[in-house]
Q: What sequence folds into this?
C-alpha cells in the first residue's frame, strides 16, 4: 500500500543505527579499565567508585564542540572533534583538582552518513584513552530535519574524582600568588562563530586555502585539537603545589580567570609576558577586531592558567619546563577584583 | 570603522548569555542537597559520594529529547521537555538498580530568544526536584547557523548510585519469571519523527487541532511528559523483589526487553493483556503503519517492564496497584531468545 508510512521513510533508520552501535563495541572496549562493570548495550554504564580516595567528591562537567564542527564539516574531517570535546571536558574538571574517571558523548546527526558516526566516536575513544578515562556510554540520536546531511552536534559529559581536601575552589588563593600561563594549541573550542565569519565570510577564504602567514591551510589551522592539560599538571596537583586553575574557554582570560579567584581578589596580567600566536593576530587583522573583543572571545594563546604560591613559583615553573611544557609567568593575584592587563 | 567584526554581530551574545546564566542560579539552588559542594559558575560541579552505600557503583546515562522538540517549538511550550529528558535519563539508570544523584543538561540554541532558555532550564530543574536529584551543572551553547531562531537541541546526563550487590544486569533472570507492565504516559521521547510525519505531513493536522478521537489537541497529546518510574519502583528495588527491568524507549518492546535478559532467554508477551492506548491506534490508522513497525518504533502503552520471580509476582503486583500504579502481568520469561507476541 503506497500510503503506508514507516520510520525509515520518515528519515530514521533503526537497523543502520544498530549496526553503527555494534561498530562502537571495540572503541568502547579500548577504553575500559578494571572498574568498568558494564558492557555496551545496557541502559546505563556501570563504574565502581575507586577505593582509596579519602572522602571522595565527584566532579562533573558538560560541554559541546560548538561551531568548530562547521569547520570539520567543510574539511570532511570527523576524527578530531571527539578529542576536542574529551580534552575540553577533562580540563574543566582538572581545574577543580579532579582526574577523570569516565566520559559519555551525545551525538545528534541528521542522516547516518557512511563512516561519519564511526569517525566521530573513534575520536572520542582516542581522546578518552589519551586522558586515561573510560568511554562508559553515549547516545547517537538520528534527528532528520534538525541537521542537514553530513552535519551533527556533539556534546560530552565527564565525571572525575578528587579527595575532598584537595578540591580547588579558589579559597586557597592569596594576593601575591603567581599566575603561570600554559600555551593553547590553537583556538581550542571557542570563538568559532567569529573566526568562521572572519575567515570564510569576510575574507572569502576556503577551507583548503593557505591561512595568511601561517604556513598551514585554513582547515588545519582551525581544526587544531584542543589540548588536554591533564598529564602535564597531574603531578603538580598530587604534589599540592597548585592553589587554583582556570581553563580559558568562552569569555577568554577576563571571563574565566575570575571564576578561579575568591571574591575581592583579581588578576594582573603582563601582556608583554607572551607572544600572541600568529593565528590570533591574523584573525584580528582580517576582521579588524578590537583588542578587548579578541581577548574576550579567544584564548589568545593562553589555554590554562595555574595559580601557585609566590615562594613556589620558580620551582613549579622549572618542573613544568623540565617536562617540556612551555609555561611562563603570566602575572599575579592582586587585591583588586577583575582582570587587569598591564 | 564599519568593517569591524565582533562576536555579537557574528550571532553570539556573551553578555546576554551571562545574564541568562545568572537567571539559572535560583533554579539550580532549588535542587541542591547536602552533598552538593559547588556553586554555579565553577568549571565543574562538585558532589560528595554518598557514604553508607556498600561497594558503591556509579551508573550513568545520556540521552536527548529527540524530535519531540519540534512539537514543543510548534506549540511554543518549552517547560515540559526538560522534565522529559530528566525522567528519561532517570529511568535509564533505574533499570540497572540505581537511584539518581545528579544531572547535567546540554542545551544548544541558535538565538537566545527571550524566556526560552529559562523555560527549558526551569523544566529541567523541576524534573530534577521530582526525582530528588541535583541539577549540578549544564551548558547553554549559542550556535547560530546550527539552529534556526526559536529552535534548540536538549540532551541530558545523569549519574546515579547502586550498591554493587544490588546491580540489575539481567544475570538474576530465570525462565518462568513474570514480566509486569507499567503504563507509559504517552509516546515518551521516542518515535516522534514518524509521529510528526503522520500527524503534520500526511494528515495535515496543526498543533492546536483536536487529535482525532482523543479529546485533546495534537500539541498536548504529543507533548505529554515522559513519566519517571523512580518513586513507584524504588520501594520494590530496596526490597530486592526485582530481578531486571527494561525501559521501553527507541526500538520498542522488541528492541529493549532483550537488553535486560541474559543470553538464551527471551520474552513471551500476551498481546491481549493490555489495551493499546488510543493515541497509538490513531497514529497507526492515520499513517497506515504496519503492526510490527508500530511495536518497533513506539512503546504502545508499555513504558517500563519489571521482571520478578513467579512466586512473588502476585505480591509485587498487589503492592504496585495498592500504591496507585496500574501495573499488569504482561507475559513471562521463556527459554527461547527474542520477544514473542502470543
A:
Amino acid at each position: 500500500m503506497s500510503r503506508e508510512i514507516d520510520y525509515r521513510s520518515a528519515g530514521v533508520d533503526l537497523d543502520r543505527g544498530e549496526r553503527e552501535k555494534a561498530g562502537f563495541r571495540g572503541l568502547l572496549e579500548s577504553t575500559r579499565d578494571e572498574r568498568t562493570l558494564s558492557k555496551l548495550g545496557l541502559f546505563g554504564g556501570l563504574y565502581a567508585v575507586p577505593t582509596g580516595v579519602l572522602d571522595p567528591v565527584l566532579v562533573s562537567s558538560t560541554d559541546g564542540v560548538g561551531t568548530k564542527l562547521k569547520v570539520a564539516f567543510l574539511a570532511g574531517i570527523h576524527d578530531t572533534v571527539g578529542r576536542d570535546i574529551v580534552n575540553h571536558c577533562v580540563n574543566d574538571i582538572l581545574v577543580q583538582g579532579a582526574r577523570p574517571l569516565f566520559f559519555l558523548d551525545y551525538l545528534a546527526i541528521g542522516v547516518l552518513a557512511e563512516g561519519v558516526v564511526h569517525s566521530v566516536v573513534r575520536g572520542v575513544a582516542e581522546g578518552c584513552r589519551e586522558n586515561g578515562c573510560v568511554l562508559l556510554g553515549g547516545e547517537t540520536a538520528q534527528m532528520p530535519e534538525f541537521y542537514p546531511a553530513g552535519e551533527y552536534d556533539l556534546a560530552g559529559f565527564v565525571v572525575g574524582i578528587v579527595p575532598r581536601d584537595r578540591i580547588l575552589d579558589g579559597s586557597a588563593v592569596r594576593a601575591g600568588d603567581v599566575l603561570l600561563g600554559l600555551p593553547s594549541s590553537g583556538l581550542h573550542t571557542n570563538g568559532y562563530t567569529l573566526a568562521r565569519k572572519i575567515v570564510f565570510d569576510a575574507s572569502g577564504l576556503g577551507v583548503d586555502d593557505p591561512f595568511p602567514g601561517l604556513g598551514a591551510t585554513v582547515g588545519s589551522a582551525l581544526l587544531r585539537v584542543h589540548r588536554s592539560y591533564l598529564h602535564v599538571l597531574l603531578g603538580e596537583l598530587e604534589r599540592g603545589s597548585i592553589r587554583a586553575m582556570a581553563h580559558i574557554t568562552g569569555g577568554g582570560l577576563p571571563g574565566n580567570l575570575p571564576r578561579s579567584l575568591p571574591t575581592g581578589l583579581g588578576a594582573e596580567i603582563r601582556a608583554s609576558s607572551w607572544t600572541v600566536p600568529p593565528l590570533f593576530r591574523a584573525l584580528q587583522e582580517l576582521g579588524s577586531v578590537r583588542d578587548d573583543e579578541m581577548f574576550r572571545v579567544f584564548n589568545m594563546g593562553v589555554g590554562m592558567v595555574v595559580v601557585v604560591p609566590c615562594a613556589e613559583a620558580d620551582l613549579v615553573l622549572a618542573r613544568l619546563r623540565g617536562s617540556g611544557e612551555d609555561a611562563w609567568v603570566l602575572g599575579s593575584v592582586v587585591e583588586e577584583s577583575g582582570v587587569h592587563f598591564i
